[in-house]
UniProtKB/TrEMBL annotation:
Transmembrane segments: none
Protein name in UniProt: L-asparaginase
E.C. numbers: 3.5.1.1
Active-site residue numbers: 32 (o-isoaspartyl threonine intermediate), 32, 112
Keyword Hydrolase assigned: yes
Family of the protein in this entry: Belongs to the asparaginase 1 family.
Matching InterPro entries: AsnASE_II (IPR004550), Asp/glu_Ase-like_sf (IPR036152), Asparaginase/glutaminase-like (IPR006034), Asparaginase/glutaminase_AS1 (IPR020827), Asparaginase/glutaminase_AS2 (IPR027475), Asparaginase_C (IPR040919), L-asparaginase_C (IPR027473), L-asparaginase_N (IPR027474)
Sequence positions that bind substrate: 79, 112-113
Molecular functions per Gene Ontology: asparaginase activity
Organism: Paraburkholderia atlantica
């Protein structure tokens, strides 16, 4: 539910805040960045999503020197509870805003738990080359040394910068700029919780300066063949581990899933009991994608699971959670055969 106007406010009479400043929409969804606890020293026992977007912005007066802000409260959720309908709403709203001449870029405030999934979804479904930047916080707004205000300022700074255009969806966190495809959460508590472990960050932002040190290579946004939809194919994730049974796969097949992503060991290797169940799932028309639970590196095609023989697809460098996002979009777009799905994973 929207609680703030989406129209652009008149810029305040702050030095540097003129009508020539870029117009950035800030869409709030909740999360730790909007969290509060009764004790400023408490960074874990807080309630997420209780601070509204106007209060978030008021805590960062320097924003008025960077951009003209259009605030909008899209949701107020703990991102652990992110749901597919909210993904649809968020993507559709961003596309609507960016299709107008009134908005030069979008910043999304989000919880850290599922930020990497939302960012990758938007990376594939936003249909504009205007900047879209997600940010978040590891400490609630009420905490000592809260990291949200600086992360928000940096995110708006990136979204307002010309070099961010055409880079797809970005994540600005702890002074670094990450590509939505690469970034993952790597710590449960640290303020530098987001990293791009395989190939590193795209660049950095500090004290108003933005620098990109490499560009995005894989297809995204305008070059993506995917569109957001209101109907999501049912895709789930299972893990391989010592002594795993086939119970979860059999239950998912019985429930009518259209796809299963496997968080395999090592190079996406799968326990023989689980592999047999997944091969049977493929024979029933269910897509199976091999990813890895390791955290970095890529799953090689025809590696440990002999993909051609079993009809499995390699996720490449995508972790299981991002692989699920891509598989849902691919199935919704009509890519169902293993060869077609492999081309999708090789492209995006």
């Amino acid at each position: 539910m929207n609680t703030s106007t989406s129209s652009l406010p008149t810029p305040p009479s702050t030095p540097g805040a003129t009508s020539s400043l870029p117009r950035i929409a800030v869409l709030a969804t909740g999360g730790t960045i909007a969290g509060a606890a009764p004790d400023a020293a408490n960074t874990s026992g807080y309630q997420a999503g209780v601070v509204g977007v106007d209060q978030l912005l008021a805590a960062v007066p320097a924003l008025s020197t960077v951009a003209r802000i259009a605030p909008e409260q899209i949701a107020s959720v703990d991102s652990k509870d992110m749901a597919l309908p909210l993904w649809t709403t968020l993507a559709q709203r961003i596309n609507t805003l960016l299709a107008t001449d009134d908005v030069d870029g979008v910043v999304v405030t989000h919880g850290t738990d599922t930020l990497e999934e939302t960012a990758y979804l938007l990376h594939l479904t936003v249909k504009s080359d205007k900047p879209v930047v997600l940010t978040a916080a590891m400490r609630p707004a009420s905490a000592l040394s809260a990291d949200g205000p600086l992360n928000l300022l940096n995110a708006v700074t990136v979204a307002a910068h010309a070099a961010a255009r055409g880079q797809g969806v970005l994540v600005a966190f702890n002074n670094r700029i990450h590509c939505a495809r690469d970034v993952v959460k790597t710590s449960t508590y640290a303020v530098d919780a987001f990293q791009s472990p395989e190939i590193g960050a795209l660049g950095w932002v500090q004290d108003g300066r933005v620098e990109f040190q490499r560009g995005v290579v894989r297809a995204h946004t305008l070059a993506s063949g995917f569109a957001i939809d209101t109907v999501w194919p049912h895709v789930e994730i299972v893990a391989s581990y010592a002594g795993v049974s086939r119970i979860a796969v059999d239950a998912l097949v019985a429930a009518g899933v259209r796809g299963i992503v496997v968080a395999g060991t090592g190079n996406g290797s799968i326990h023989q009991a689980l592999q047999q169940a997944l091969a049977e799932a493929v024979s029933r028309g269910i897509a199976v994608v091999r990813s890895s639970r390791v955290g970095s590196g890529h799953v090689m095609r025809n590696g440990a699971a002999a993909d051609d023989a079993l009809g499995f697809v390699s996720a490449g460098t995508l972790n299981p959670y991002k692989a699920r996002v891509l598989l849902m979009l691919a199935l919704a777009a009509g890519h169902a055969a293993p060869a077609a799905l492999q081309r999708v994973f090789d492209t995006y």
